[in-house]
Amino acid sequence: MISKPSVGGTLLGLWLAVGAVAAPATDAPAPAAGPPTGGRSPFGASGALPPDAPKPSADPHDLRGLYYMHMAGPLLPGIDKKNPPLTPAGLAVFRQRLANHDAGLVPDDPQVQCRPMNAARMYGTGFPQVQIIQSANEIVILLMEDHITRRIALNGQHPAHLAPTYLGDSIGHWEGDTLVVDTIGFRDDSWLDETGTPGDHNEHLIERFRKVDGGSKLEDQVTIEDPGVFSQPLSFTVPFTWRPDATWDEIICEEGNRDAVDGSPSGAGAKP
Amino acid sequence: MMPSVFESRIGIRCLTLLFLMPGPAFARHPDFTGVWQATPKSAPLLPTSGPIPFDDRGAALYNAIQARTKVGDRSWDTLNQCIPPGTPRAMAQPYPFEIIQEPTRVSLLFQLQRLDRSISLTGHSNMSSDPTFMGDSLGHWEGNTLVIESANFKTTPDTFLNDSGAPHSDQLKVTERWSSVNPDTLKDEIKIEDPKFLTRPWHTVLVLRRLKHVAIAEDVCVDRVRAKH
After folding, report:
1. Residue A140 to residue B225, Cβ atoms within 8 A
2. Residue-range definition of the domain harbouring residue B2
3. Going along chain B, which residue ranges are E strands?
4. Is B6 in the same domain as B36?
5. From CA A157, how far away is CA A169, in angstroms rounded?
6. Confidence of residue A5 (pLDDT cuts 50, 70, 90)
7. What is the mean pLDDT of residues B58-65?
8. What is the pLDDT of residue A240?
């Protein structure tokens, strides 16, 4: 079983890989394949692929498979705790969350309460394993952490009236060999990373995925706009590595946090 | 009339050719990709005939669960604590789920708690060796039937086989045979084996109905369960 932060546990846990590259999003070199490991490794693969490992499809529009995402860490790239690019309103929420953490209050972090993460927060997930599943009309990004399932409807439109959700509403289309994913419809109480970078209903996540090195890597250029929270758009690039040999584990937040389910107090006064 | 040796050879060659042609050979399998839901909406998952053949240990556990249910106590049901209901019970819940069928993998993506289950068709699974709620599934095609064998499950009292609370042990093996009755109806013939709790295997059938124009919603189990309290 893989451990993960429990309710009331440490907020800033151990981060296993640091590889995301802050803007400008250009041809930054990707980190070596496989995350660094220490102690018992939750990963079934590191270093070079075995010679008999399946090869990625040669089709640039076929992203199916299992990857390691090189995660950002407990703060999104470009967010500096002391001087974050946030509006006064965004800064107030961010500082309150930091103060709550410093005061030892149980945070109202949705993920710690076993709720889904904000879609942008996948770039700070604690586990790098990601599956991309694909049908004719849809691409699904499935994270190992908390089995976060991001459904991307291909060639569709956002619904006219969106009920806000944690993961938002994602649509995608191909621009040449780049999959462009557009996500809106987020909640006002969003945490974009584990530290508490805020997001609200104006959050707009744009991701541009393309295969590089014959599919042995994916390059993902991420832009987050949120005029109520960010003083300027946030951009960074996240590399993914083709790892068909990665081990997949089942991570069930509620299993270790049954008191989060039955309505136990969750740190009254710790909002936002 | 028996075919001649010559006719048989032609038949075998044609069959071989069919298997060697990846496009057409794959295309003849039914395509289960889509959104599905059990019918009836909460499928009971009980044996097609007779009672569940529990041994003494399994019967004692099942009787205790049923006695609690009889007096209105369903606190045994970990589904109410957002614990995954496992395989096959997750498919029998009154929520839609998605199947995406690829040549080497069939993915089940549930609305319920965003659960997922991956069925590898390569003979090799990426699942870790730790037991899981949803199990480790390997599938293969037998003609037009997808045969799926799942094992390495977590056990009762964390999971149950059905809404009645039928228990299972770590020796549970679930064998499913998925076939297409018609493009909108999937029949899942299920065999349950569990030498620790059963005197013999038992069988049940789960019928899935294809849902059209239904989007999978975001399910926040914690909030759904709290709202019921």
Report:
1. no
2. 1-29
3. 34-39, 97-101, 105-110, 116-120, 136-142, 145-151, 173-182, 185-193, 202-211
4. no
5. 10
6. very low
7. 97
8. 96
pLDDT given at position A1: 44
A43 vs A34: CA distance, rounded Å: 9
Length in residues, chain B? 229
User: Which of A36, A50, A66, A55 minimizes the C-alpha distance to B127?
Assistant: A66
Q: Which of B133, B220, B226 lies at the smallest CB-CB distance from A250?
A: B133
Nearest residue, CB atoms, B81 vs list A54, A246, A254 = A254
Query: Which of B106, B113, B63, B42 shows the shortest CA–CA distance to B83?
Result: B113
In whole angstroms, give the CA distance from residue B195 to residue A246.
32
A261/B226 touch (CB, cutoff 8 Å), yes or no: yes
Tally of CB atoms within 10 A around A17: 20
> Contact at 8 Å (CB) between B188 and B137?
no
β-strand B116-120 against B136-142: which pairing, if any? parallel
What token pair was written down for A238? 């996240």
Of A153-157, B14-18, B43-47, least confident by mean pLDDT is B14-18
Q: Which helix (H) or strand (E) holds A134?
A: strand A129-134
pLDDT at A263: 54
Residue A72 tokens read as: 């950002």
One domain, residues B170 and B90: yes
Does A261 contact B116 at a Cβ distance shorter than 8 Å?
no
Give the integer Cα–Cα distance in Å for A188 and A207.
Answer: 21
Q: Which ipTM was obtained for this model? A: 0.87
Tell whether B6 and B43 lie within a shared domain.
no
Confidence (pLDDT) at A21 = 43
Q: How many domains are there within chain B?
A: 2
First to last CA, chain B: 69
- Regarding whether B12 and B57 lie in a shared domain, the answer is no
Task: Give the C-alpha separation, A201 to A187, whole Å.
Answer: 5
pLDDT in tens, B176-204: 999 999 999 999 999 999 999 999 999 99
- Does A252 sit within 8 Å of B84, measured CB to CB? yes
Whole-number pLDDT of residue A124: 84
- State how far the Cα of B17 lies from the Cα of B161, in Å rounded to an integer: 42
- For residue B124, which residues of chain A lie inside 8 Å, CB to CB? none
Residue of A17, A235, A1 whose CA lies nearest to A125 = A17
Going by C-beta distance under 8 Å and a sequence separation of 6 or more, which residues neighbour residue A227?
A: A87, A202
The pTM (predicted TM-score) of the whole model is: 0.86
